[in-house]
Amino acid sequence: MLVHGGYNNHLTPSWFHDLWMLQPEQSNSNLEQTQQPQAITTWVWSRLDTTKEQPKPSARYSHTLVGLANQPIFYLFGGDDGGHQQHPQSYEMGAYLNDVWRFELTRDEQHNRDYGGRWMKMSFDTGPTPRTSHSAVVIQASMFVFGGLTTTTTTTKTTTKTTTKTTLVVANNELWAMAMATESNVAQWTLVAPYFNGEEPGEDESSLQQPQARYGHTAAAAGTSMYVFGGKGKSRKSTVLFNDLWSFHSNTTRWTLLHNKGHRPVGLLYGTMSSMLVGLDQTRVLVLYGGASGCSNRCFTESKTWVFDVLQKAWSVLDTGTGTGTPVSRKSDAQPIQPMHRYRHAMATLRLPSTTITGEDSMVQVVFGGETYGEIEKYRNDVWVLHNVLPQSGGEGGVTLLVGDHGTSGRSSLIRPHLTTLAGVAVLLVCLLVRCCGSRCRTKTSSFHLSYPGKK
After folding, report:
1. pLDDT confidence of residue 124
2. Structural domain contains residue 451
3. Per-residue pLDDT averaged across 186-207, rounded?
4. Is residue 449 part of a domain?
5. Is residue 32 predicted with pLDDT exceeding 50?
6. Which residue pairs from 231-234 have beta carbons closer than 8 angstroms and sit at least 24 positions apart in sequence?
7. Could you list the residue range(s) of the whole structural domain that residue 317 is in?
8. Among 41, 122, 153, 450, which one is least packed by beta carbons within 10 Å?
9. How far apart are CA 302 and CA 448, in angstroms?
């Protein structure tokens, strides 16, 4: 799990451009006491050092970071730096970025560990405009970037001067694809034209042939498809939080509205979603956690976990027991029994290596960081694992809190998830962000059950 950059405004504004890795290390203790993979795995944070003399991405948030499957190569795109280099104590709207960086992870084979890497800035002639709060996933060997906030620049010339004006665009629904070449420093972008059936969409949302313009949505990839849920945008000339779920098929360039009626999550901003296979029949499900709802006059941060069965096209709330999470200090023996309500966090699927008991790899969801409101310390740097996900009504799941001795500074984060395998370690690729949807944000919680790890 790679974490890059972010923002923390606990006492003073702090912008980050550090790079951290969280990875499981196999342990042989407690094998006879439990079969839970979290109980026999040690999770370790390590900072990936890069050469100071080499260029690297500037500090930012709300960007995306994705990687090629089975290769130690990752791509960072876009984001927002708030104009902090010119105005450290204030925030400038529209200070968005559209640069592309490639990071190559290096490995110490002698000691069997990852220890650093090298950044390289990519060049391109044509590509997306600067943007933030977009989504990015990897399908095969291409990065697909959808939606987000962007800006337009207009230039006015007179006989005496030239005036350039930047206008903020609320959202867009462009879909760009970038071939992720491993040996070139040139980014090849293509604006993907969606397939249409020739019919003009009406006012009814069910007749739409692609998602409406939005930002703060979440996306996940599975096979040759991308799934997009939620976000904020305009519908029938009013600003709304979406709770629709779309799939994009890269082979046909066709969008499909999967679910917009019946039992489903409320409209959510900055939630997180990832894809996984569960059960003996390897059912494809989407797991959606957290996010902010409401957001007309004020927001509410959520802690529900939803599961979408792709085959049955049905949402269900994951039953994780009862109880309310509470903050835990690193030195305390007390354990919260659920993650605190949050948004702008990170979540994705991790494949844990097989154990001597199960003989099989274990698929889990890992949640990191985010923002909670109504708390003194609203920026989080806790790590949770969700296991035993069942894609059915009344399905159960356990939640395990991982508390380390050290780690990253508390910060808010947004994930654009992609699962790869690197030397037997599943890697979750994360980008960080922060900004509440309003100064009067409120919170509410739902229930979780905590499966306690064995002592090391």
Report:
1. 93
2. no
3. 71
4. no
5. no
6. 231/147, 231/171, 231/269, 232/171, 232/269, 232/295, 233/170, 233/171, 234/170, 234/171
7. 2-196+208-443
8. 153
9. 12
Question: How deeply is 164 buried, as exposed, middle or buried, from its count of CB atoms within 10 A (0-12, 13-18, 19+)?
Answer: exposed
Distance CA 148, CA 170 (A): 8
Residues written for the chain: 456
Count each helix (H run) and each strand (E run) in the chain, helices first.
0, 36
Residue 201 lies in a domain: no
370 vs 381: CA distance, rounded Å: 7
Q: What is the DSSP string of 240-283?
A: EE---EEEEETTTTEEEEEE-SSS-PPP-BS-EEEEEEETTTTE
* 278 CB-near residues (< 8 Å, 6+ apart): 285, 363, 389, 390, 391
Tokens read off for 408: 């990253």
Measured distance CA(364)–CA(286) in Å, rounded? 12
Please report, for the domain that includes residue 336, its CATH number. 2.120.10.80
Q: Report the chain's mean pLDDT, rounded to a whole number.
A: 74
Any residues with CB less than 8 A from the CB of 335 and at least 6 apart, and which? 328, 401, 450, 452
Sign (positive or negative) of CA dihedral 151, 240, 273, 445: positive
Task: List the structure tokens of 341.
Answer: 């309500």
* ∠ CA 174-179-182, rounded to 5°: 145
pTM for the whole structure = 0.81
Amino acid residing at 81: D
* Residue 15 bridge partners (DSSP): 7
What is the DSSP secondary structure assignment for residue 408, as one 8-state letter? Answer: P
pLDDT tops 70 at residue 104? yes
Give the chain's domain count. Answer: 1
Neighbours of 343 (CB within 10 A): 30
Is 147 inside any structural domain?
Answer: yes
Of 155, 134, 132, 143, nearest to 182 by C-alpha is 143
Confidence band of 379 (pLDDT split at 50, 70, 90): confident
| Short-list 189, 207, 211, CA closest to 198 | 207
42 vs 309: CA distance, rounded Å: 31
**Backbone φ, ψ for residue 40 (5° rounding):** -115, 25
Assess contact for 374 and 442: CB atoms under 8 A: yes
